[in-house]
Structure formats: structure tokens, C-alpha cells
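From: lab user (bench 3)
To: helpdesk
Subject: output format question, protein + S-adenosylmethionine

Hello, I'm new to running complex predictions and I'm not sure whether the block I got back is the full result or only part of it. Here's what I submitted:
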Amino acid sequence: MPQEFVYRDKKLGDTEAITVETAPDVFQPTSTTVLLLRAARRALTPPPRSVLDVGCGSGVVAVVLARNLPAGTTVCASDLSEAAARLAGRNAARNGVTIDCRSGSLFAPWAGRQFDLIVDDVAGVSEPLARASGWYPSQVPSEAGRDGTRWILNVIDQAPDYLAPGGRLCFPVLTLSRENLVIERARARFATVTQVEEQWYPLGEDLLAQWTLVEELVADGSITIEKHGSRWCWATRVFLAERAS
Ligand SMILES: C[S@@+](CC[C@H](N)C(=O)[O-])C[C@H]1O[C@@H](n2cnc3c(N)ncnc32)[C@H](O)[C@@H]1O
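Helpdesk reply: Thanks, we reran it on our side. This is the complete output you should expect:
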């Protein structure tokens, strides 16, 4: 029996759900998926003519955006994982939308292309925590480095070449990575960088079980956590960065 993820954002007034199939060897959507989609959907005015979901996993972001955009919008999705790209293709068909799904690292599948909106969700969690958290089972590619910035810094450096003039990059930054480095890089590469979402979560049991590792990562600046009341918490922030026209 295939597993499913049911998406509906009541904050955006959704009355109907969108369902995608998930798989054990592909990243399972999380609360960050929902927050990222909230930011990306709020960035659909005026409607982009072309959208890329990079680091697409099951394709949930591309599918939801395609369902919320006019027919004729070009929607593309890619992931390093071939299993993810195949699953994204199945989820597009299941939801009656056309998405060009490809596999390859970062922007490699999209040489020479430009998009009005790129939604990046390539693995960006401190590698030891990505594995300990259960978010990245061994079959799901991560390799984001000790401070989680390996891929996102590359995405920020390369994205201006893959954005049309005035195009926007929507990306999450978790405090379970060296977020200041990421934001500084984005501000250096883009005309504007705006934080559009923020959500805090308590450290889950899987991460609390790795407390010594968490303390080491905090000590060397790889991650940041904050005490809220009696609980240690981490956050996801979502940013919109605009390429100069
Ligand atoms: C946080 S998941 C995002 C999946 C999807 N957006 C979601 O919310 O469910 C990160 C994705 O990045 C992919 N990934 C890891 N390294 C990559 C790379 N170098 N290039 C492209 N995708 C990569 C993983 O396979 C995984 O599907």
C-alpha cells in the first residue's frame, strides 16, 4: 500500500487537499515543506510564467504550485535522486498537472534555462543531525556538510544565472545550519533578500538523544538553538531573494 502525504494549508484558505505519494527511499515532506509552500504560494502574484522546484523529493512543491498556477505555466522539478525524480513525475500525473521532472545535482539538469521563480529545497541541515533526526534515511541524499551549507551556498551563487531578470529565489534556512553565512551570501548575490516566514519547533526526541553532538555543533557555530520556556528549539525561516531586473 503506497504511503501518502496530504497537503492543505488552512492559513491560505485551502478547502481541498492535494495528495502525493511518498516512498521510503525519497524524502518525506515535513513542516518545512508546508512553510516553504506557504511562502512560495504567496509569491505567485503576479503569476510566474515558469517555475523550478530544485531538490523536489516527492515533487510536492511543484505539484501544489502547478495546481495553483494558470494552465500553460512551465513547471519543472529536479532532484539528485533518480527515485525522487521518478516519484515527482508520478505525482504530477496523479494530480493532473504537467511537470518536467529530471534528475541531477542542483541546476545541472537545467543548463541554459531561466525561470521566473525558483523554489530551492536542496538538503540544508547539518549532516550529522540530518541523519540523526530521521529526516534523511540512508537512501536519501544529504551530504550538506557539518554546518549544512554545502548545497545552499552553491544554489545562491548559481541561481542568478537560472533566473530571468526580476526573477525570485524562494529558499528555507534552518537554524540547524550556519544560517548567518547563508543570509550573508544571499545579500551579496541578490538585489533584495526578504524574510517572509519563520516558525520555531522544539528539538525532537531523536535530536535530544544526540545532545552531546548538538552541543558540539552549537559550540563551533554550525547550528543555533534557543531556549523557549523549558524547551530547546530550532527554527525554519523562509526567504525571497530577487534578481536585479
Ligand atoms: C528537504 S528535501 C526536500 C524535498 C521536498 N521539497 C519536500 O519538501 O518534501 C531535500 C532534497 O534534496 C535532495 N538533494 C540532496 N542533494 C541534492 C543535490 N546536490 N542536488 C539536488 N537535490 C539534492 C534530496 O534528495 C531531497 O529530496
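A quick orientation on your result: The chain is about 30% helix and 30% strand. Let us know if anything else is unclear.
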